[in-house]
Amino acid sequence: MDYLALVIAFCGGAFGASIGALAAFVFTGFAGLIGIAMAVSGVGFDFLGNVAFGPYFGPHIAFAGGVAAAAFARKMGYMESGKDILKGLTGLKKPEVLIVGGIFGMMGYAINVGLASQSAIKLDTVALTVFILAIIAKIAFGNTGLGEIFGSVPEDIKRIGGRYCLRCSNVWLPYATLPCDKTIIGISAGGVSVYLTYLMLQNPETAPVAAFVGFCISAITLIWLYLGQDIPVTHHITICASYAVVASGGSVWWGFAAAVAASFAGDFFARTFYCYGDTHVDPPATAIASISFVLMTLIPKGVYEMEYIAAAIVALAVIYSAVRYAQGDKCRIDVSAVEETA
C-alpha cells in the first residue's frame, strides 16, 4: 500500500465533503472524459486513474467521504438529513465534519486496494467500496445500530405491501420508478453506451477505456439535479451496459440486457438500503457492484455466446412493462390516501 496515497486520500475525502458528495461525483465525470481523451491521444500520464478514479475524485474516496460526512453531520445535529448529498459541507463551519470525510476517504483507498489485490472474484471494486463505506457510515452514525442497515418500514407502507410493493410511494426517484420507466431508461441510456463501447473496442487505441465514456457522461448529467430537474440517474446503467459488451467480447445484446438489469437493480437496492433511513446508501453503486460481479465472475464465457438469452431478458422486461402500462400501472398511490381507506 502506498502510504503517501493514503494521506492524499484523506485530502480527497475531506475535499469531497467540502464541496458535497454529488458535486465530487459530477467532477468524476468531467475528469473522466479528460482522462479518456488523454489516454487515447497517447499521453503517458494516467489522468483517468490518478484524478478521475484516484484520490482527487475517485468515488470511493471523494464521493464516499462526502456521504459519510453528511451522515455524521446529521448525527451531530448540524443538518436535518444525512441523505443531502447536494450540500457542500464547508458551509456548516464544522471542521470535524470534513475530518470525518477525510477519514472515510482513507478507508476507501485502503478497502479498494485490498479488494483489487485479490484475483478470485472480479467486479467493480470502486463501486463495492462505495457501498461498504455507506453501510459503515449508516451503522456508525445511525440511531439503531445494525438495524439501521435496512431501516424500519413504517406500518402504513406495510399495509400496502411493504418496501418492494409497486404501490409504495416511498421510493428513490418518484418520476422513474415504474417498470416502463426503468425499462425505457435502461434501453435508451444503455443503448448509446453499448454502441459507443462496441465501436471503441474495434480500435486498439480506444479499447482500454471503452467501458467508461458512457459512465462519465451520465455522471455529468447529474448537474441537472442541482437545478431541480426530474432527470434519470443512469451511470449504473451505462457502465454495466459497457461492462457487458466488454465481458461478452463485443455483444450488443448482452449490453442491452445488462443495462435493463442495472436499471431495475438500482430501484431494488434503493428500496433495500436507501429509502428507510436517514443516510445515503448509493443505489447506483450497489447496482454496479452487483451486476459487475454477475457479468465478470458468475456468467461463464460460454453463456455469452448464447445471445438469445440476453435478447430474452430484454424482451421479458419490455413485455412486463407493456402489460403493467396497459393495466394502468396504478403504482403511484399516496400513502395518506391508503391510510384513509384502511
Tell me what the structure shows.
With 342 residues, the protein is mostly helical. The protein folds into two domains: 149 residues, no CATH class; 192 residues, no CATH class. The protein is built from 15 helices and no strands. The longest helix has 23 residues. The chain is globular and about 55 Å long. The C terminus is likely disordered.
Mean model confidence by pLDDT: 92
Number of strands: 0
Uncertain segments are: 331-342
Fraction of residues in β-strands: under 5%
Shape: globular
Rg value: 20 Å
Range of helix content: 55-70%
Largest sheet: none
The end-to-end distance, rounded to whole angstroms, is: 58 Å
The ordered H/E elements are HHHHHHHHHHHHHHH
Number of domains: 2
Number of helices: 15
- The computed structural class is mainly alpha
List the helices and strands and how they pair.
Blueprint: H1 3-19, H2 21-40, H3 47-52, H4 59-75, H5 95-117, H6 125-141, H7 155-159, H8 179-201, H9 213-221, H10 223-226, H11 235-247, H12 252-274, H13 283-298, H14 307-326, H15 335-341
Helix pairs in contact: 1-2, 1-4, 1-5, 2-4, 2-9, 4-5, 4-6, 5-6, 6-13, 8-9, 8-11, 8-12, 8-14, 9-11, 11-12, 11-13, 12-13, 12-14
In short:
By secondary structure, the chain is mostly helical.
Label this structure with key terms:
single chain, 342 residues, mainly alpha, 2 domains, 15 helices, globular, disordered C terminus
